[in-house]
Design brief:
The chain has 75 residues and is mainly α. Helix content is 83%, strand content 0%.
Length: 75
């Protein structure tokens, strides 16, 4: 059974590998997708999502107390 599962994973990998290798327009589209993901996760994080805990608290214990307080706060 383990041999058959390995064969299935190999077949799936080869299917996608051959598909990506034979693409023409798709390679350009994947390049655009990867650039957009890079912009979304790296550039936007650096400029628009500052490290709130690092800037407002100086020690790890203060940060952990704040997080614990926020998680257990009742309304």
């Amino acid at each position: 059974m383990l041999l058959r599962v390995g064969h299935i994973f190999k077949s799936i990998f080869l299917f996608y590998y051959d598909g990506f290798r034979s693409m023409t327009i798709g390679k350009k589209l994947w390049t655009i997708i990867l650039i957009k993901l890079f912009i979304m996760f790296i550039v936007l994080k650096i400029f628009f999502f500052p490290d709130f805990l690092k800037t407002n608290f100086s020690t790890d214990s203060q940060r952990s107390d704040y997080v614990l307080d926020q998680l257990t706060k009742t309304k």
